[in-house]
Every structure is written in C-alpha cells, then in structure tokens.
Automatic annotation (TrEMBL):
Designated name of the protein: Chitin-binding
Leader peptide range in chain numbering: 1-22
Key words of the record: Chitin-binding, Disulfide bond, Signal
Keyword NAD: no
GO molecular function: chitin binding
Native source species: Macleaya cordata
Intrachain S-S bonds: C36-C51, C45-C57, C70-C74, C101-C116, C110-C122, C115-C129, C133-C137, C156-C168, C161-C175, C179-C183
Superkingdom of origin: Eukaryota
Annotated ranges, domain Chitin-binding type-1: 36-76, 98-139, 142-185
A Pfam entry, by short name: Chitin_bind_1
Length: 212
C-alpha cells in the first residue's frame, strides 16, 4: 500500500511538469505524463500535448506527434500543433469539426470515401490510408478495385479477382470469401480452356459471355 501511494505521488508530480528531465534526450520515461486517447477513455492531453498511439501524453516530439504515432493533438501537414479544448465528460459531442473523424470524434466517417488517419484526419494519401488508418483504409501502392476504388465498382485488370478488401489477385484470399468481382473460388480445380490462357478457366465462361 505504501509503495502504491508512493507511485501515485510520483505520477502526479510528473504530470505537473511535462517534459521535465531536461534536454531533448529525455526519453520516453521522462516525456510520459498522463494516459490519453483510446487507452484513457478518449481523454485529450492537457496543455496541447500530443497523445501517442500508445496512449501517453508527451512533449511535442516527432516520436509521439507525427501522424503515424499520434492519436490526437498531433503535428499535421502545416507543421503546426493541432490542439483542442474538447473534453470527454460522457456527453455526446454536438458536432464534429470539418475533416475530423474516428474514435475521438464519435466514430465519424470521412466524406467522399476518404481515409481516416490514426490521428483522426480525413485524406487520401498514404499518411491517411496506410498504417494506423481507422476507416475507409487502403494501400495506394496496390491496384484498387470494387467499392474501395471510390469511383464506382471497378474490376481488376487481366481478369484477376477483386477481394473483399479491394485488392486484385489470383489466390483464394482474393477469389473466395467476400470476393467482389471476377470470382472463381475453385480455380485450382478447374481445367484450362483449350490452348488458352492459364489465367482463365471454365469457371470464367459466364464472365466471358457477359463481356462478349
């Protein structure tokens, strides 16, 4: 019990002096001051501090505040700190700011099928749609298909399957459960067309007739 009280006292004293420890090389143990974000019930950090993806409030360093490592009050495209005075008291927020989304904004989705980044911003680059993305996510490096493409139902080139996640491929992960188009789950057990392309099988005949 004495040890617990001592630890709580140390945490409180540290939280009143964010970033104490001197210099830029303070390290995680010196930067961490409070619990925030999803790990802290959606709570923002005090004094405009960044909330890292690990749920810690921290001095504004790139290891905590860049888009890939941050949940809220993050450094954004204009290199300025995005701060908020909104607190979580159990009452629903009345409105969601423009271009904000995700768990810190009532689970709001972005308009126009844009991605919601790890820090709750709407956009369409890898910073938004890659690692840590919350909704409407994709990897822009890969060819996209289906409703994920954001411009109607788009089929894959070369008769490849469009997976449930919006990627093109020829394996069961793409062509079976949830496949959106050019689907042929039993492709490996099918017989190739006479003298034909090994990528097309008898199961593809209905598709060929539709496009004829």
């Amino acid at each position: 019990m004495v040890l617990f009280c001592l630890m709580m006292s140390l945490l409180i004293s540290t939280s009143t002096l964010p970033g104490s420890g001197g210099g830029d090389g303070g390290g995680v143990a010196q930067d961490v001051v409070l619990v925030c974000g999803a790990e802290g019930g959606g709570a923002p950090c005090p004094d405009g501090l960044c909330c890292s993806k690990w749920g810690h409030c921290a001095v504004n360093t790139s290891s905590y505040c860049n888009l890939e490592n941050c949940q809220s009050q993050c450094d954004h495209d204009d290199d300025t700190l995005i701060s908020t005075t909104t607190t979580t008291t159990g009452d629903a927020l009345q409105s969601v700011p423009a271009n904000r989304c995700g768990r810190l904004f009532q689970g709001a989705l972005c308009s126009d099928d844009r991605c919601c980044s790890s820090s709750g911003w709407c956009g369409q680059s890898y910073s938004y749609c890659g690692g840590g993305c919350q909704s409407n996510c994709y990897d822009p490096v890969k060819y996209q298909c289906g409703w994920h493409a954001g411009r109607g139902v788009v089929k894959c080139r070369d008769n490849r399957c469009c997976s449930r996640w919006g990627f093109c491929g020829d394996t069961s992960e793409y062509c079976c459960d949830g496949c959106q188009s050019n689907c042929r789950c039993n492709k490996k057990n099918s017989t190739p067309l006479n003298g034909g392309d090994h990528n097309r099988t008898l199961i593809d005949l209905p598709l060929l007739l539709e496009t004829a």
